[in-house]
Amino acid sequence: MLMRAKSVTEQARRAQIVRAAIATIAELDYAETSFKAIATRAGLSSTGLISYHFRNKQELVDVVFADILERFQGFVTERMGQSTARGELEAFLRANVAFLREHRDDMLAFLRIRAHAAVTDGGIADSDHVALAALLRQGQEAGEFRAFDPDVMAVFILAMRNGVVLRSGALDLDVCERELVAAVELATGG
How many CB atoms lie within 10 A of CB 180? Predict the structure, then answer.
């Protein structure tokens, strides 16, 4: 089946709906988010405008998830590339908090829909964990980190990062960034 290219107007409407969905999920959580709530936030006259672009809530959630993931990964990757594992770990942590600082609703929505998204590319949490554990092993091999189980330490680090995201509305992110980096530095030793 041939699909026609979406017009500029259709692309803009889809983007408007995705932005409204992100804000709605961040505020209400996944279970409470409905096409009606999204339409209200987007200023749309009808949920039919959402249904025109997205078959159902699952398709919209998948698009939202992929959109946030792509922007998040690009943001973090731009800030990586340090010459040491310790430097790379610190850059990763600071980039995560910087993205959160600039895109809090995105990060909240991402965490809230992660378990519901069908397009998890084999498991985002698993790929984050695998990459972080590999970085920790590399740092151990280079003598930058103390001896510890890299898989377990990766779980702890990601849990701390996710905790900051979930509580970010009530926390000073400058303090969070400083304490997160310090806690991970103390935990990984050297």
Answer: 21
| Contact status, residue 24 vs residue 64, Cβ threshold 8 Å | no
CA neighbours within 13 Å on the CB side: how many for 76? 18
Contact yes or no for 157/92 (Cβ under 8 A) = no
Average pLDDT value for residue range 112-141: 81
Burial category of 24 from C-beta neighbours within 10 Å (exposed 0-12, middle 13-18, buried 19 and up): buried
Q: Which residues contact 149 (CB under 8 A, 6 or more apart)?
A: none
Which whole number is the average pLDDT over 161-172? 84
| Cα separation, 80 vs 91, whole angstroms | 6
Instruction: Encode 116-130: b = buried (16+ Cβ within 10 Å), e = exposed.
Output: ebeebeeebeeebbe
CA distance 167 to 9: 37
CA dist., res. 186 & res. 144, Å (int): 12
166 band by pLDDT with thresholds 50, 70 and 90: confident
- Confidence label for 83 from pLDDT (cuts 50, 70 and 90): very high
Residue 2 has phi, psi (to 5 degrees) of -80, 135
Tell me what the mean pLDDT of segment 125-129 comes to: 74
> What would the mean pLDDT of 18-43 be, rounded to a whole number?
94
Q: Say how far apart CA 139 and CA 87 lie, in whole Å.
A: 10
